Amino acid sequence: MNKLEYIARSLSRGTNKKYETYVINAIYQKVSNPNLEIETQKVIKLNDGYSPLIDLYLPQLEIAIEVDESYHDSERQKNHDLWREDSINSQVRKSCIGDSIRFERVKVSSGDIEAVNKRIDELVSYIKEKIDERTEPLVWLSDDEKIEKIKERGTIEVNDCFYNNVQIINIVYGKNYKGWQKAGYKSLWFPVMSDKLDDNSLTNRSSWQNFFNSSKTVIYERSTSKETNENKKGYAIKDQQNITTRIVFVKDRDTFGVSRKRFAGVFQARGWDDNLQAQIWKLLSTEIDIPLEN
Fold it and tell me: Is residue 223 part of a domain?
């Protein structure tokens, strides 16, 4: 799908909501920047299974715009809207999505076209201001084009994102595999990171827990099986002695429903933490050259 077709389809979504269509088209036309990426009716997946839609999302700027019709005027709905925004941002990681999303709203319930157009103009000015603040110009790239840019650059850097494990293997080691299901390949490690629950406990995957420290510079790895973890301590000490390193790509929980693997860095084995009962992996480098020698 070329850019023109994509934009035309995006701007025609939600045509059963006439005010939404009017606002979104007006904003896009007035910003008038062909390199501004737009996503309309963007599905969001929250933890409880609730999947609301964002009317207009600008991923390069991390701005969401909602068009509020009359039912948004009640106090109950206003509180629900605030809860939804908080829920979305609580799930957004520094990853393929971003740090946080700024929500802006356009109220159309009054039916006052002058008030609506004034609000549209305010948002257009704000969007243009954010574009001008960028250190690099906007560039609209497809996912495949972003991968090609990484290959041309010759390095993978922290927060670069990929589709899946096999794509990473093929890029890093110059392979042409069709599939790969294991959690590692040579120096590559594809851990599923644990989530912290309300009671501060951690989720686990196949009896393992992997979690970062607050600065994302240390990964702790442990088994929920006491017997397995006792053996793990011995391996952790050997890894430290052998100066073992891992090139780490973590699976991010994409609130928009698209799974991505994010490069977290190169981590080196640093022994065992008795308090956490976990192996320690400390950040060594934030980029790698590609392709690596086999």
Answer: yes
Q: For the CA atoms of 262, 265, 268, 271, what is the dihedral angle to 10 degrees?
A: -50
Angle formed at CA 159 by CA 247 and CA 184, multiple of 5 degrees: 30
Helix, strand and coil content of the chain, in percent to the nearest 5, comes to: 35, 25, 40
> Does 192 lie in the same domain as 118?
no
Joined tokens for residue 251: 């699976």
Domain end point (choices 133, 157, 185)? 133
**DSSP conformation letters of 50-69:** ---EEEEEETTTTEEEEEE-
| pLDDT digits 0-9 by tens, 9-44 | 788 775 557 788 899 999 999 999 999 988 888 776
Q: What burial class does residue 59 get, using C-beta atoms within 10 Å of its C-beta: 0-12 exposed, 13-18 middle, 19+ buried? A: middle
98-135 pLDDT, tens per residue? 557 888 989 887 778 999 999 999 999 999 999 999 98
